[in-house]
Amino acid sequence: MAENLEIGKISKPRFEFRSFGQNFDNAAFRMSRLSVPVPENVWERHSDEIYIISRTNDVNNTKIRDGKMDIKTLVNISHGLEQWNPLMKGEFPMKTSSLLSEVFMSFQLPLPNLNKEEYTFDEFLQIVYQHPDLGAVRVHKQRFGYMVNNTICEYAVVLINGARVVSVSSESTEIDDILKTISDLKLEGVENINYLQAIKRVIGMIHKPLANE
Q: Does the residue 9 lie in any domain?
């Protein structure tokens, strides 16, 4: 039985379509017209986050918001859609054992030599800043929430270290519902680009353009 999704509520692991570019005005308009009514608290949301980007990792998504770390891992790709599962959640100060066994392991890099029992948020960022293959990227999101075909949809204006891009997305536990939504939003053929990939392209760590310029 298909799950009845609610924006902001926990569900089974969802599949995601997301893309980034300079203009998704038509998809955003169609999203707003096709959407069923959604709770007022998801009409528009703002957040400031820090993504930790590793040159060698494309499967573990690490971000920090309000001093809390959240890591998701890519577990499945089907019909071009990505399924991400929680890998760990943590708070600062963080034990060195957790930093090594969970956080730095997710970056797919040799483990650093850490000589303290725990590290504060600022101390962790200093380690990232000094590492040649890591980057701490500040991301501001202005997100507008919708529900189309029982998929959680979003149009977002995103600042990646101040560079403005826009994003559209559709998430659901049901692949067919996402594929129908992609068609209804006239997004067929648009590349699926997750946050990790988008950030790497904007900062020049990956030499690829976004979905549209």
A: no
45 located within any domain: yes
Which residue range(s) make up the domain with 86?
Answer: 15-203
Q: How many domains does the chain have?
A: 1
Q: How far apart are CA 23 and CA 208, in angstroms?
A: 17
Contacts of residue 83, defined as CB under 8 A and 6 or more positions apart, other chains included, come to 13, 14, 15, 16, 74, 75, 76, 77
Confidence of residue 8 (pLDDT cuts 50, 70, 90): low
E strand or H helix at 179: helix 175-184
Phi, psi of 77 (to 5 degrees): -130, 125
Distances (CA, A) of 175 to 91, 108, 170: 33, 29, 10
CATH code at position 25: 2.40.320
**pLDDT for position 174:** 96
Residue 8 in domain: no
Sorting pLDDT into bands at 50, 70 and 90, what band is 21? very high
When the pLDDT of each residue in the chain is averaged and rounded to a whole number, the result is 94
* Contact by Cβ (8 Å): 174, 150: yes
The whole-model pTM stands at 0.92
For 44-79, how does the pLDDT look when each residue is reduced to its tens digit (9 = 90+)? 999 999 999 999 999 999 999 998 999 999 999 999
Number of Cβ atoms within 10 Å of the Cβ of 80:
13
- 18: amino acid identity, one letter: R
Residue 39: inside a domain, yes or no?
yes
> Closest Cα partner for 31 from 207, 185, 210, 204?
185
